[in-house]
Design a protein that fits this description.
two-stranded antiparallel sheet, 2 domains, globular, 8-stranded parallel beta barrel, 326 residues, alpha/beta, single chain, TIM Barrel
Length: 326
């Protein structure tokens, strides 16, 4: 599959853009485990054109993570064009436009998935951004605003006509947020529309290697994107890639192996932020990691793990868990 001139190979598996999750440390870790393309956290166009320091920092990328996409969001054409030009100066491989974020502070203000209520404005922004930069521009969106307005089949054609190089579709409406099951039937309908010629990337509830292959085989998408299933489990990319290539499930590693990956993740986060800031940033991964599920009487240990404020304290808890299971 190609996005512009960027060749991602056969059946690429991508890391979804996620706020407060896909910082550089996590992107590099997922890349290490086989992610074919990674996306930054989404970047506010308004904050970027005002040079807000915390937002500008999100443009920091490295050659080790390529191909990498920087994602922007906003509701005004001028701000989005200005932000797109700033992003291009950071030299990502791809510029992605977020028309899918459902959270109130974004969609409620008309940006992200809020644009699904103003399609003319969405298309105006898309055309302007495509015209403003010389790198491939892609879009990520949802099926529609709600179940009564699942407009993605027609919208996909309109976005393609704006000149985008690929389209990612999350199989939920904005009103669903992250509840219920992702509906891939409409994603498949977009992909199988003979008028569509750009790559279609499917997103939503890809939580296992078996499900990943099913999405490729059943719906014909060009690529898949993994989001929340990567929390505390960056090795999911390794599992998926192995299964796609061999049709065999990868053998499980030891508990110590998985724990060491999380230990490295914590250490990388601390190195890039600060001790407490790095630990705080990784807590959602520790809370979601499947490696701790099924451990008897684990609740007190889980609470202690999620309250730990220093590396020494957290790694001591890790060692106690390992000792307990050995």
């Amino acid at each position: 599959m190609k996005i512009g001139n960027i060749d991602l190979g056969d059946k690429p598996v991508c890391l979804a853009p996620m706020e407060d999750v896909t910082d550089q440390a996590f992107r590099l870790m997922c890349k290490h485990f086989g992610a074919d393309m990674v996306y930054t956290e989404f970047v506010s166009s308004e904050a970027l054109i005002r040079s807000v320091n915390s937002t500008v920092k999100k443009l920091t990328i490295s050659d080790e993570e390529r191909p990498v996409a920087i994602q922007i969001y906003g509701r005004e054409v001028e701000a989005m064009v200005g932000a797109a030009k700033r992003v291009e100066e950071a030299h990502p491989d791809i510029l992605d436009i977020n028309f899918g974020c459902p959270v109130k502070k974004v969609a409620g203000k008309g940006a992200g998935a809020g644009m699904l209520q103003n399609i003319p404005k969405m298309l105006e922004i898309t055309r302007a951004v495509v015209d403003a930069v010389n790198i491939p521009v892609t879009v990520k969106t949802r099926l529609g605003w709600d179940m009564e307005h699942r407009i993605i089949v027609d919208l996909a054609e309109q976005l393609q006509d704006c000149g985008i190089s690929a389209l990612t579709i999350h199989g939920r409406t904005r009103s669903q947020m992250y509840t219920g099951e992702a509906d891939w039937t409409l994603i498949g309908e977009v992909k199988n529309n003979p008028r569509m010629h750009i790559p279609i990337i499917g997103n939503g509830d890809v939580t296992s290697a078996i499900r990943a292959k099913e999405c490729f085989d059943k719906y014909g998408v060009d690529a898949i994107m993994i989001g929340r299933a990567s929390f505390g489990r960056p090795w999911i990319f390794r599992e998926v890639k192995h299964y796609l290539q061999t049709n065999e499930l990868l053998l499980e590693e030891s508990f110590e192996w998985y724990l060491d990956v999380l230990r490295d993740q914590v250490a990388d986060s601390v190195k890039r932020l600060s001790e407490y800031g790095g630990i705080l940033h990784v807590r959602r991964h520790l809370a979601a990691s499947p490696i701790f599920k099924g451990i008897p009487d684990f609740r007190p240990t889980r609470i202690a793990m999620l309250r730990a404020a220093t590396l020494e304290e957290l790694f001591q808890i890790f060692d106690e868990i390992k000792k307990r299971l050995s």
